[in-house]
Amino acid sequence: MAQTIIKAKTAPAPSVRLIDVDEGSAGQRLDNFLLRELKGVPKTHVYRIIRSGEVRVNRGRAAADTRLALGDQVRVPPVRVAAPAAEPAASAVPPREFPVLLEDEHLLVIDKPAGVAVHGGSGVSFGVIEQLRRARPEARFLELVHRLDKETSGLLLLAKKRSALNHLQQQFRDRQTGKTYAALVAGAWPASKKVVDVALHKYLDAQGERRVRAVAADDADGRRSISLVRVVQVFAAPAPGFSLLDVTIKTGRTHQIRVHLAHEGHAIAGDEKYGQFALNKALAAGKAVPGCRFDRMFLHARRLAFDHPASGERITLEAPLPPECATLLSALSSPAP
Q1: List of domains in the chain
Q2: Which residues have a catalytic role annotated?
Q3: Is pLDDT at 85 greater than 70 in this prediction?
Q4: Which residue(s) pair with 304 in the sheet?
Q5: Which end of the chain is less enclosed by CB atoms within 10 A, N or C?
Q6: Mean pLDDT across the chain, nearest whole number?
C-alpha cells in the first residue's frame, strides 16, 4: 500500500510592511507604535532595528521618540514575531456597557460600579476596557485615560482618539484636572484638618500584592502626595461615629486617598486593605448600622473636571452616589429606634 506523506506547512517568511498611520496612532511615539505592531518581539530588538535605520518614517530614518502624524508611512523591516500566548476566548469577556455621562467622537465618560476592575491583569481576567471593546466592536480606538481602584465607583474617563488620549493624559500629568471623591470614614474627622501632605511609598508585600504606606517627607522611596479634605457631614452615632468627606486629590498616587485617610486615623468604611477589619465585618453583617448591610468600600469618584481635548471647553461632571452608599447615609441620618 502506498504511503501518503503529508508535509507540514511552514509559516511564510516575514516581509517588509508599509503601514499608514491612522487617527488611532497619530501622536504616538515610534517605539510605542512598533511595540504594539510587533507583539511578541523583544523590546531590545525593536530598539535595535530603530537605531540601525531599518525602520523608516516617510522613507527617512527616525528616532524612537519620533511622534507619528496622521498619514505618515512607517516601513517595518522583516521581523519574525513569536507566536502569541493563548488568550482567553473572546466569548470569555462578556460585552458590557456602563452608564454614560458624556460621549462624543473624542471621549467617553462612564460611571463605573464598585467591584469592577478598569482593566484585566493581576489575577483579573478582564475589566471595564475589555468589556467596552467587546460591546463596541466597531470602535477603532478606545483607551483608559486614568485609573480607578476596583473597589472604587464613579467617574472614569476614556479616549476615543489617540490625540484625545495624549491631550487628556497631559492634563492629568500637569494637574490641570479636578478629581473629587466622596469618602465615608470612621470617627469624627477634625474640621481643621483640611490638607494631608504625606509622602507615599508603593511596594509589594510578602504575598506579592501591591500596597502603599505613608513615609517621612525625606524618605528616599517616598513621593510627595497631597489630598484636600472637606467635612460634609458628621454622624455621631452609632459608635465609633462616621464622617462623610469630600477629598480632592492634587496628586494621583496609587491608593492615595485610602492611605492618607487611614494614616490620619480615619480609615474608609469597607476598605479591606487599609481599613478596620472588625468595623468592616460589622458593616457587612448589618450590625454596625442597624438595619443596613454595607459590604463595599465607601469611596466614590463623584466629580471630574477637565478641558475638552478638541474645543478646550472646561467640562465638569458629577456622578450621584450609588444606591448602596445613599442607603447607608440615610440609615446613619435616621434616629436610632
Answers
A1: 17-76 (3.10.290.10), 92-173 (3.30.2350.10), 178-333 (3.30.2350.10)
A2: 149
A3: no
A4: 179, 317
A5: N
A6: 90
